[in-house]
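In this section we walk through a basic example: taking a raw amino acid sequence and producing a predicted 3D structure, encoded as discrete structure tokens. The instruction is simple. Fold the sequence below.
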Amino acid sequence: MTTRTAADTTSPNRIAIVSMILLVWLTAFHSFPALAAKEYAPVGGGGDSSARDVCPAGQFLIGMRVRSGAWMDQMSITCGAINPDGSIGTQSNGPTRGGNGGGPSQGTCGAGKIVSGLGMLFTEGNRQVLTIDLNCRSTTGPDRSNFRLGQEPPGFSRFPTEIQPCPNGEAAVGVQGRYGRHVNALGLICGTFAQVVPGTGPGTGSTGSTGTGCAGLSGDDLEMCTEHNTYRARHGVAPLTWSTELANNAKAWVAGCHKAKNANNDEYFCHQSPRGCGADPNYRYGENLSFGWPSRTAKEAARQWYCESNVYNFDNPSPKLAGEDDSGSVFGDACNPANNPKKVTGHFTQVIWRATTKLGCAKNTCSQGQTQGTLWACEYDPTGNFNAAEPGVLAQNVPKPIQGLAPMMALGRSASPQTNTFIISDVDLYDIPGGVGRVIGILRQGQILRLYECKADDWCRVEGGWVWGSFLVRSHIH
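The resulting token sequence is shown next.
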């Protein structure tokens, strides 16, 4: 779309046309369909080198610094952390890319806004980037705006020819591009973002405290609930709330140790859905089963389900639910991909499923053949994996892990006095380890604290007290 206007930039006609262009531009971003975490390949001309610049963990793209003349000569990204009230906190700048020509300029989205899309105009033949339009969104509401960096030819006001919006539920975390003496090509990188509800913390994780849905629980119930919400926080989806009704349903099912046999006469534990060996045609919940011998803890069961993420393709997701007799992947060690040859991922997707809000679980001692062990059942409402074969459903409900965060469990629990930790969700701070002491405060999602030591039971000492280590990730900031 190209609009030629009079040279008089103050004319009513020009203002009306530009306003209409901006309205179309904002609407295009607002209505773009929800997809998985999106990375756009660089668009434009060739360059001498390529680079990928991503904001530090917990920060989002809020603007850029550029040098431009007849076209874009140089650029670097500007990132900002999101405070609990939605305002922009700590800021940082990425490395400088491109040449040294042109004059300097910079711009940011402004108070309480982050970048949600990128638009570009190019020189003839798309050899260089001419202008960059940054579309911005409020961290707390629906407000949107945009601004332009770079010089467009006098007398013209043109809509970007290349538009790269972040899907719903995401915001920009960086760019990748090609550079030489100029900025030749750019592609936007998006990451998970949930709109901030002031007082609950930034949108880089779950909305609210991971512990909220587990309040009042103890023992196995607390461990299972907390494990689920810890894993969900890594993917930026809201925590589950414990349901007594669902827990009672699970308890009644595992009490029967229901089993069946496959075509090879192998015995397996079956689900209570009508498609399993359940008799209730009105059963409407989702269900995960886990069996381990001689016993299996709640934490171990949840870990087995989540470990199916090792073979899950976030970029090209497809439903692969467990068959009733997929005992090797259902009950084996899915943390080793070799033990999940059928690449079953339905247990993992149910744990993370964004639309699920309630959880209830129970265990019982059961036997499979001559082997006695612990059978776990967890029920979910609304059910996960619903319409998973429909386009976009998996992408919407099973987002990638939060950009830039590496789970501490994958890095080991030992920590030197020089290691920092990043809080992935609101969590209570205790005066002594083990969860048996007094709650002396709360650590907010996004905080970075010095990490001093972690014990074998997963309790870690930070500044001011102790916190359960599953809520921590290494920030790699020393």
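Looking at the output, two observations stand out. The chain has a mean pLDDT of 77. Residues 176 and 432 are 45 Å apart (CA to CA). In the next section we compare this with other chains.
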